[in-house]
Amino acid sequence: MTAARAWSPATPGLAPWACDPLASRGRRHAEPRAATRTEFQRDRDRIVRSTAFRRLEYKTQVFVNHEGDMFRTRLTHSIEVAQIARSIGRSLGLAEDLVEAIALAHDLGHTPFGHAGQDALDECMREHGGFEHNLQSLRVVDELEQQYAGFDGLNLCFETREGILKHCTAANARALGELGERFLARRQPSLEAQVANLADEIAYDNHDVDDGLRSGLLQLGQLDSIELFAGHRRAVERLHPGIAGRRLVHETIRRMIDELVVDLVGESRRRIEAAAVASADEVRAAAPLAGFSEPVRSRAAQLKRFLHAALYRHPRIDRVMASARRVVRQLYSAYAADPALLPDEHRVRVDVHGMRAVADYIAGMTDRFALREHARLTGEAAPDLAPADDGGASG
Ligand code: MG
User: Fold this and answer.
1) In terms of Cα–Cα distance, which of 322, 304, 306 is closest to 384?
2) Structural domain boundaries of the chain?
3) What is the phi/psi pair of residue 368, to 5°?
4) Which end is more exposed in the chain, N or C (fewer Cβ atoms within 10 Å of the end residue's Cβ)?
5) Distance 363 CA to ligand 1 centre (A)
6) What separation in Å is there between the alpha carbon of 78 and the centre of ligand 1?
């Protein structure tokens, strides 16, 4: 007979450096505990059921949403980030539900058309405090979602909000109170937040190679000098002579992801042990504890430089993004000049929040809604936003 094991609703196997949901710093509006879920599970569930989360399906990651059914969108990107982040989190004994909640929420504030949309909106908002998608993710969960009777936003735990806010200017940090303190004190966020942030990089570095090749904007040969890719490609070709096409790309990329994840887990463990942290608060006071070993970090940096030059700045992507910036600028000008063009519930917010309410409305748009609205307001035909050769044609 074995003794019955005590069961606790807390995440099993939490390491001392993890965020314990039972020790959360709590929510902005006090709520009774859930009967069957931890507080971080509950945050994850609130994020998945939010309007902003569903809109991620129709927002650009790199390729504009409707140009091909095979490319990543913000939604599938966020799901891939969550998957990678959970694997790393579990290996490090972290609160997996928290890691997942942060990963799923990290891009909720993204404008339509990816970084081009954010840059255009930031420019439009220059006189009104600017626009920053990461800070906007926090606005979405703190203020903009309208789901609950007792409060605006999703009323998430401090730890989830801390993880969503990756960077912040000193001025914004001062305005954010408790959440902004760490930027002023130059402290780290929890390990769960650090891991979700690095999982974001692992996800996009790899899926952008995949989508870049699929789109025809990148060619396999261009990656011969990129060590992280080329090394694994050679290994795949040795193991599977004659392999080519999508299978070669996929086998190579899955090995890249594996190498990055295994390295990150090993290096983070080493740092955690060396720092001898015994609590989540000691993690916050230490140097960053999640990270890659130096050789892997430098090979990942080489891949990033390549993606910037060859894909993100590809002339065809540039052309699409210039049109996207124009769409966002013209939407902003139209609403700023005449707030009566906004739907009622947004127009009344302009009286209270000024141009921030216009930015909130535009930031919430999906790519296709922004294009429709732009056509409606300007009478212009929608710009052609398809840089890819065969998006959706091949599997
Ligand atoms: Mg992301």
Assistant:
1) 322
2) 17-378
3) -70, -35
4) N
5) 16
6) 6
* Ligand 1 geometric centre to CA of 106 (Å): 6
φ/ψ (deg, to 5) at 324: -65, -40
The four Cα atoms 296, 302, 304, 305 give a dihedral, to 10 degrees, of 160
Residue 229 CA, ligand 1 centroid: distance in Å: 21
3-state SS, residue 73:
strand
Question: Looking at the chain, how many residues does it have?
Answer: 395
Neighbours of ion ligand 1 (CB under 5 A): 107, 200
Separation of 368 CA from ligand 1 center, angstroms?
A: 20
How many angstroms separate the alpha carbon of residue 282 from the centre of ligand 1? 27
State in words which class domain 17-378 has: mainly alpha
For residue 390, the tally of other CB atoms under 10 A from its CB is: 11
329, with CB counted inside 10 A (0-12, 13-18, 19+), is: middle
In angstroms, what is the span from residue 33 Cα to ligand 1's centroid?
30
Taking the centre of ligand 1 as the mean of its atom positions, its distance from the CA of residue 352, in whole angstroms, is: 31
| Alpha carbon distance 76, 166 (integer Å) | 20
